Fold Alpha-hydroxy acid oxidase.
Amino acid sequence: MSGDSPAWVNLHELADAAGPKLSAQAAAYFNGGAGDEHTLAANPADWQRLHLWPRTLAPLDGSHTRTMIGPNAVAHPIWLAPVAYQQLAHPEGEVATAMAAAAQSAGMVLSSQSSVAVEDVANAMRTVADPAGDVAPLWFQLYWQPDRALTLNLIQRAEAAGCSALVLTVDAPVHGVRDCERRAGFSLPAGVRAVHLPHGVAQASTLAPLLQAAPTWHDLNWLREHTRLPIWLKGVLHPADAALARTAGMDGLIVSNHGGRTLDTCVSTAWALPRVADAVQGELPLLVDGGIRRGTDVLKAVALGAQGVLIGRPQVHALACGGALGVARMIRLLRDELAVAMALCGCSDLRHANRDLLA
Protein backbone atom coordinates (compact mmCIF):
# COMPACT_ATOMS: atom_id res chain seq x y z
CA MET A 1 0.00 0.00 0.00
CA SER A 2 1.33 3.42 -0.88
CA GLY A 3 0.28 7.02 -0.63
CA ASP A 4 0.91 10.22 1.28
CA SER A 5 -0.78 10.74 4.63
CA PRO A 6 -3.80 12.95 3.97
CA ALA A 7 -4.07 16.24 5.90
CA TRP A 8 -7.49 15.66 7.42
CA VAL A 9 -8.88 14.57 10.76
CA ASN A 10 -12.53 13.91 9.87
CA LEU A 11 -14.57 12.97 6.83
CA HIS A 12 -15.74 16.53 6.20
CA GLU A 13 -12.13 17.70 5.91
CA LEU A 14 -11.42 14.61 3.80
CA ALA A 15 -14.01 15.71 1.24
CA ASP A 16 -12.34 19.12 1.03
CA ALA A 17 -8.89 17.57 0.70
CA ALA A 18 -10.08 15.35 -2.15
CA GLY A 19 -11.31 18.29 -4.22
CA PRO A 20 -7.95 19.23 -5.78
CA LYS A 21 -7.07 15.56 -6.29
CA LEU A 22 -10.05 14.82 -8.55
CA SER A 23 -10.56 16.01 -12.09
CA ALA A 24 -13.60 18.19 -12.67
CA GLN A 25 -15.37 15.31 -14.39
CA ALA A 26 -14.49 12.79 -11.68
CA ALA A 27 -15.69 15.22 -9.00
CA ALA A 28 -18.97 15.71 -10.87
CA TYR A 29 -19.45 11.94 -11.09
CA PHE A 30 -18.57 11.04 -7.51
CA ASN A 31 -19.94 14.06 -5.64
CA GLY A 32 -23.01 15.04 -7.62
CA GLY A 33 -26.57 14.05 -6.85
CA ALA A 34 -29.88 13.91 -8.68
CA GLY A 35 -31.90 16.98 -9.56
CA ASP A 36 -31.56 19.85 -7.10
CA GLU A 37 -29.72 17.53 -4.70
CA HIS A 38 -32.29 17.77 -1.90
CA THR A 39 -31.90 14.08 -1.04
CA LEU A 40 -28.12 14.34 -1.28
CA ALA A 41 -28.26 17.06 1.39
CA ALA A 42 -30.94 15.35 3.48
CA ASN A 43 -28.94 12.15 3.97
CA PRO A 44 -26.26 13.61 6.28
CA ALA A 45 -28.59 16.25 7.72
CA ASP A 46 -31.08 13.67 8.99
CA TRP A 47 -28.38 11.68 10.79
CA GLN A 48 -27.35 14.92 12.48
CA ARG A 49 -30.93 15.67 13.52
CA LEU A 50 -31.03 12.47 15.56
CA HIS A 51 -29.83 13.08 19.11
CA LEU A 52 -28.02 10.53 21.24
CA TRP A 53 -29.34 10.11 24.80
CA PRO A 54 -26.36 8.76 26.76
CA ARG A 55 -26.39 6.69 29.93
CA THR A 56 -23.73 7.04 32.61
CA LEU A 57 -21.86 4.83 35.08
CA ALA A 58 -22.35 1.77 32.92
CA PRO A 59 -19.60 -0.90 33.07
CA LEU A 60 -17.30 -0.36 30.09
CA ASP A 61 -14.49 -2.83 30.74
CA GLY A 62 -14.09 -5.05 27.69
CA SER A 63 -15.90 -2.68 25.30
CA HIS A 64 -15.55 -3.63 21.65
CA THR A 65 -17.03 -2.92 18.22
CA ARG A 66 -17.48 -6.56 17.17
CA THR A 67 -20.85 -7.50 15.72
CA MET A 68 -22.64 -9.71 13.17
CA ILE A 69 -23.52 -8.76 9.61
CA GLY A 70 -25.70 -11.53 8.26
CA PRO A 71 -23.83 -14.74 9.12
CA ASN A 72 -20.48 -12.94 9.29
CA ALA A 73 -18.85 -12.25 12.64
CA VAL A 74 -17.01 -8.99 11.96
CA ALA A 75 -14.62 -6.71 13.85
CA HIS A 76 -16.80 -3.65 13.34
CA PRO A 77 -19.94 -2.60 11.42
CA ILE A 78 -18.25 -0.24 8.90
CA TRP A 79 -18.17 -1.63 5.36
CA LEU A 80 -17.46 -0.12 1.95
CA ALA A 81 -20.35 0.53 -0.44
CA PRO A 82 -20.20 -0.31 -4.14
CA VAL A 83 -18.74 2.66 -6.04
CA ALA A 84 -18.10 2.40 -9.78
CA TYR A 85 -15.05 3.47 -11.78
CA GLN A 86 -12.68 3.98 -8.87
CA GLN A 87 -9.73 4.39 -11.23
CA LEU A 88 -11.13 7.87 -11.77
CA ALA A 89 -9.89 8.62 -8.25
CA HIS A 90 -6.61 6.65 -8.20
CA PRO A 91 -4.71 4.52 -10.75
CA GLU A 92 -4.94 1.43 -8.55
CA GLY A 93 -8.70 1.87 -8.22
CA GLU A 94 -10.60 -0.92 -6.53
CA VAL A 95 -7.44 -2.93 -5.84
CA ALA A 96 -6.18 -0.24 -3.46
CA THR A 97 -9.61 0.00 -1.84
CA ALA A 98 -9.72 -3.78 -1.38
CA MET A 99 -6.28 -3.85 0.26
CA ALA A 100 -7.40 -1.15 2.70
CA ALA A 101 -10.61 -3.00 3.47
CA ALA A 102 -8.72 -6.21 4.19
CA ALA A 103 -6.18 -4.42 6.39
CA GLN A 104 -8.97 -2.85 8.43
CA SER A 105 -11.27 -5.91 8.53
CA ALA A 106 -13.94 -4.02 6.61
CA GLY A 107 -16.28 -5.86 4.29
CA MET A 108 -16.34 -4.54 0.72
CA VAL A 109 -19.16 -4.59 -1.82
CA LEU A 110 -17.65 -4.44 -5.31
CA SER A 111 -19.62 -2.65 -8.00
CA SER A 112 -20.48 -4.56 -11.17
CA GLN A 113 -19.28 -1.34 -12.85
CA SER A 114 -15.87 -1.70 -11.21
CA SER A 115 -12.88 -0.50 -13.23
CA VAL A 116 -10.92 -3.52 -11.95
CA ALA A 117 -11.96 -7.14 -12.39
CA VAL A 118 -13.50 -8.99 -9.47
CA GLU A 119 -10.79 -11.65 -9.68
CA ASP A 120 -8.06 -9.05 -9.15
CA VAL A 121 -9.95 -7.39 -6.30
CA ALA A 122 -10.49 -10.74 -4.57
CA ASN A 123 -6.80 -11.59 -4.95
CA ALA A 124 -5.83 -8.21 -3.50
CA MET A 125 -7.98 -8.81 -0.43
CA ARG A 126 -6.41 -12.22 0.06
CA THR A 127 -2.88 -10.81 -0.03
CA VAL A 128 -3.47 -8.50 2.94
CA ALA A 129 -4.03 -10.02 6.35
CA ASP A 130 -5.47 -8.09 9.26
CA PRO A 131 -3.07 -8.34 12.24
CA ALA A 132 -5.93 -9.54 14.44
CA GLY A 133 -6.81 -12.30 12.00
CA ASP A 134 -10.27 -10.92 11.23
CA VAL A 135 -11.81 -11.68 7.85
CA ALA A 136 -13.00 -8.96 5.46
CA PRO A 137 -15.82 -10.40 3.31
CA LEU A 138 -16.07 -9.45 -0.37
CA TRP A 139 -19.58 -9.14 -1.80
CA PHE A 140 -20.53 -8.44 -5.43
CA GLN A 141 -23.08 -5.78 -6.36
CA LEU A 142 -25.19 -6.76 -9.35
CA TYR A 143 -27.00 -4.55 -11.81
CA TRP A 144 -29.61 -6.57 -13.63
CA GLN A 145 -28.59 -6.86 -17.30
CA PRO A 146 -31.02 -6.91 -20.26
CA ASP A 147 -29.36 -10.17 -21.36
CA ARG A 148 -29.82 -12.86 -18.72
CA ALA A 149 -26.78 -14.67 -20.06
CA LEU A 150 -24.67 -11.64 -19.11
CA THR A 151 -26.31 -11.49 -15.68
CA LEU A 152 -25.53 -15.19 -15.19
CA ASN A 153 -21.93 -14.63 -16.29
CA LEU A 154 -21.51 -11.91 -13.65
CA ILE A 155 -22.97 -14.19 -10.98
CA GLN A 156 -20.68 -17.06 -11.93
CA ARG A 157 -17.59 -14.83 -11.98
CA ALA A 158 -18.44 -13.50 -8.54
CA GLU A 159 -18.89 -17.01 -7.18
CA ALA A 160 -15.67 -18.28 -8.75
CA ALA A 161 -13.71 -15.31 -7.38
CA GLY A 162 -14.83 -16.14 -3.85
CA CYS A 163 -17.45 -13.47 -3.22
CA SER A 164 -19.66 -14.48 -0.33
CA ALA A 165 -22.91 -12.66 -1.25
CA LEU A 166 -24.70 -10.95 -4.12
CA VAL A 167 -26.16 -7.46 -3.71
CA LEU A 168 -28.84 -6.73 -6.29
CA THR A 169 -29.42 -3.00 -6.75
CA VAL A 170 -33.15 -2.46 -7.18
CA ASP A 171 -33.55 1.32 -6.96
CA ALA A 172 -32.03 2.36 -10.30
CA PRO A 173 -33.86 0.87 -13.29
CA VAL A 174 -32.84 4.11 -15.03
CA HIS A 175 -30.21 6.75 -14.26
CA GLY A 176 -31.22 9.72 -12.18
CA VAL A 177 -31.21 13.20 -13.66
CA ARG A 178 -27.77 14.37 -12.56
CA ASP A 179 -27.28 18.01 -13.47
CA CYS A 180 -23.72 18.07 -12.15
CA GLU A 181 -22.63 15.32 -14.55
CA ARG A 182 -24.50 16.88 -17.47
CA ARG A 183 -22.98 20.29 -16.78
CA ALA A 184 -19.50 18.76 -16.72
CA GLY A 185 -20.17 16.73 -19.87
CA PHE A 186 -19.10 13.63 -18.00
CA SER A 187 -17.55 10.80 -19.97
CA LEU A 188 -15.08 8.11 -19.03
CA PRO A 189 -11.47 8.85 -19.95
CA ALA A 190 -9.40 6.46 -22.01
CA GLY A 191 -8.36 3.44 -20.00
CA VAL A 192 -11.25 3.50 -17.52
CA ARG A 193 -14.31 1.36 -18.16
CA ALA A 194 -16.67 -1.11 -16.54
CA VAL A 195 -14.47 -4.15 -17.05
CA HIS A 196 -17.18 -6.70 -16.25
CA LEU A 197 -19.41 -5.48 -19.07
CA PRO A 198 -18.76 -6.05 -22.79
CA HIS A 199 -17.09 -3.39 -24.90
CA GLY A 200 -19.37 -1.48 -27.21
CA VAL A 201 -22.65 -2.13 -25.41
CA ALA A 202 -25.16 0.20 -27.05
CA GLN A 203 -26.71 2.81 -24.78
CA ALA A 204 -30.49 3.02 -25.00
CA SER A 205 -31.64 6.32 -26.54
CA THR A 206 -35.08 6.12 -24.89
CA LEU A 207 -36.42 4.86 -21.57
CA ALA A 208 -38.57 2.12 -23.10
CA PRO A 209 -35.84 -0.56 -23.50
CA LEU A 210 -34.56 0.10 -19.97
CA LEU A 211 -38.02 -0.15 -18.46
CA GLN A 212 -38.74 -3.33 -20.40
CA ALA A 213 -35.58 -4.95 -19.01
CA ALA A 214 -36.01 -3.71 -15.43
CA PRO A 215 -36.23 -6.57 -12.92
CA THR A 216 -39.40 -7.30 -10.96
CA TRP A 217 -40.18 -9.41 -7.92
CA HIS A 218 -40.76 -12.39 -10.24
CA ASP A 219 -37.16 -12.23 -11.47
CA LEU A 220 -35.88 -12.92 -7.97
CA ASN A 221 -36.98 -16.54 -8.35
CA TRP A 222 -34.68 -16.91 -11.37
CA LEU A 223 -31.84 -15.25 -9.48
CA ARG A 224 -32.29 -17.58 -6.51
CA GLU A 225 -32.25 -20.61 -8.83
CA HIS A 226 -28.97 -19.53 -10.42
CA THR A 227 -26.78 -18.79 -7.42
CA ARG A 228 -25.70 -20.51 -4.25
CA LEU A 229 -24.85 -17.14 -2.66
CA PRO A 230 -26.99 -15.17 -0.21
CA ILE A 231 -28.92 -12.38 -1.96
CA TRP A 232 -29.28 -8.89 -0.49
CA LEU A 233 -31.46 -6.21 -2.06
CA LYS A 234 -29.97 -2.72 -2.15
CA GLY A 235 -32.23 0.30 -2.48
CA VAL A 236 -35.21 -0.67 -0.31
CA LEU A 237 -36.82 2.32 1.41
CA HIS A 238 -40.48 1.38 1.80
CA PRO A 239 -41.78 -0.98 4.51
CA ALA A 240 -44.09 -2.67 2.00
CA ASP A 241 -41.10 -3.60 -0.18
CA ALA A 242 -39.24 -4.82 2.89
CA ALA A 243 -42.15 -7.14 3.67
CA LEU A 244 -42.20 -8.41 0.06
CA ALA A 245 -38.46 -9.09 0.23
CA ARG A 246 -38.95 -11.14 3.36
CA THR A 247 -41.69 -13.15 1.64
CA ALA A 248 -39.44 -13.62 -1.39
CA GLY A 249 -36.80 -15.26 0.77
CA MET A 250 -34.11 -12.62 0.44
CA ASP A 251 -31.18 -12.86 2.83
CA GLY A 252 -30.85 -9.18 3.74
CA LEU A 253 -31.70 -5.61 2.79
CA ILE A 254 -29.68 -2.46 2.30
CA VAL A 255 -31.66 0.67 3.10
CA SER A 256 -30.35 3.04 0.45
CA ASN A 257 -31.40 5.87 -1.84
CA HIS A 258 -28.32 5.47 -4.03
CA GLY A 259 -26.56 8.28 -2.23
CA GLY A 260 -29.11 10.77 -3.49
CA ARG A 261 -28.05 10.00 -7.08
CA THR A 262 -31.30 8.65 -8.53
CA LEU A 263 -34.59 10.13 -7.27
CA ASP A 264 -34.36 13.62 -5.84
CA THR A 265 -36.65 14.57 -2.92
CA CYS A 266 -37.08 10.93 -1.92
CA VAL A 267 -36.79 10.11 1.77
CA SER A 268 -33.45 10.00 3.54
CA THR A 269 -32.07 6.70 4.74
CA ALA A 270 -32.04 7.82 8.38
CA TRP A 271 -35.79 8.46 8.07
CA ALA A 272 -36.51 5.18 6.25
CA LEU A 273 -34.36 2.83 8.36
CA PRO A 274 -36.56 2.52 11.47
CA ARG A 275 -39.65 2.00 9.32
CA VAL A 276 -37.97 -0.79 7.35
CA ALA A 277 -36.68 -2.30 10.59
CA ASP A 278 -40.20 -2.34 12.01
CA ALA A 279 -41.47 -4.06 8.86
CA VAL A 280 -38.98 -6.94 8.97
CA GLN A 281 -39.17 -7.40 12.76
CA GLY A 282 -35.65 -8.74 12.99
CA GLU A 283 -36.28 -11.49 10.44
CA LEU A 284 -33.97 -9.92 7.84
CA PRO A 285 -30.60 -8.31 8.58
CA LEU A 286 -30.28 -4.70 7.50
CA LEU A 287 -27.46 -2.47 6.32
CA VAL A 288 -27.81 1.24 5.60
CA ASP A 289 -25.87 3.82 3.61
CA GLY A 290 -26.22 7.48 2.69
CA GLY A 291 -24.62 10.46 4.40
CA ILE A 292 -22.85 8.61 7.22
CA ARG A 293 -19.85 10.75 8.10
CA ARG A 294 -19.21 10.22 11.83
CA GLY A 295 -18.87 7.38 14.29
CA THR A 296 -21.92 8.81 16.03
CA ASP A 297 -23.86 8.25 12.78
CA VAL A 298 -22.78 4.60 12.81
CA LEU A 299 -24.01 4.18 16.38
CA LYS A 300 -27.33 5.82 15.51
CA ALA A 301 -27.77 3.48 12.54
CA VAL A 302 -27.22 0.42 14.72
CA ALA A 303 -29.59 1.81 17.34
CA LEU A 304 -32.27 2.18 14.65
CA GLY A 305 -31.99 -1.44 13.58
CA ALA A 306 -29.09 -1.78 11.13
CA GLN A 307 -26.39 -4.38 11.68
CA GLY A 308 -23.89 -2.16 9.90
CA VAL A 309 -23.31 0.72 7.52
CA LEU A 310 -21.86 1.17 4.05
CA ILE A 311 -19.58 4.10 3.28
CA GLY A 312 -19.64 5.43 -0.29
CA ARG A 313 -18.22 8.83 -1.26
CA PRO A 314 -15.67 9.02 1.59
CA GLN A 315 -13.94 5.90 0.30
CA VAL A 316 -13.17 7.54 -3.07
CA HIS A 317 -12.21 10.79 -1.35
CA ALA A 318 -9.73 8.83 0.77
CA LEU A 319 -8.59 6.88 -2.27
CA ALA A 320 -7.89 10.12 -4.14
CA CYS A 321 -6.00 11.59 -1.19
CA GLY A 322 -3.87 8.65 -0.15
CA GLY A 323 -4.52 5.48 -2.12
CA ALA A 324 -4.89 2.37 -0.02
CA LEU A 325 -3.41 4.06 3.04
CA GLY A 326 -5.97 6.84 2.77
CA VAL A 327 -8.88 4.40 2.63
CA ALA A 328 -7.47 2.42 5.55
CA ARG A 329 -7.11 5.59 7.60
CA MET A 330 -10.70 6.62 6.80
CA ILE A 331 -12.08 3.27 7.97
CA ARG A 332 -9.99 3.32 11.14
CA LEU A 333 -11.03 6.88 11.90
CA LEU A 334 -14.71 5.97 11.75
CA ARG A 335 -14.14 2.85 13.85
CA ASP A 336 -12.31 4.86 16.51
CA GLU A 337 -15.07 7.49 16.53
CA LEU A 338 -17.63 4.72 16.94
CA ALA A 339 -15.73 3.26 19.91
CA VAL A 340 -15.62 6.68 21.59
CA ALA A 341 -19.33 7.29 20.96
CA MET A 342 -20.19 3.89 22.44
CA ALA A 343 -18.16 4.61 25.57
CA LEU A 344 -19.72 8.04 26.04
CA CYS A 345 -23.20 6.53 25.67
CA GLY A 346 -22.55 3.77 28.20
CA CYS A 347 -22.69 1.08 25.50
CA SER A 348 -19.97 -1.57 25.71
CA ASP A 349 -21.42 -3.90 23.07
CA LEU A 350 -23.35 -3.06 19.89
CA ARG A 351 -25.88 -5.74 20.79
CA HIS A 352 -27.08 -3.33 23.48
CA ALA A 353 -27.55 -0.40 21.06
CA ASN A 354 -31.24 0.22 20.52
CA ARG A 355 -33.68 3.10 20.21
CA ASP A 356 -33.35 3.86 23.92
CA LEU A 357 -30.03 5.45 22.92
CA LEU A 358 -31.88 8.09 20.88
CA ALA A 359 -33.85 11.04 22.15
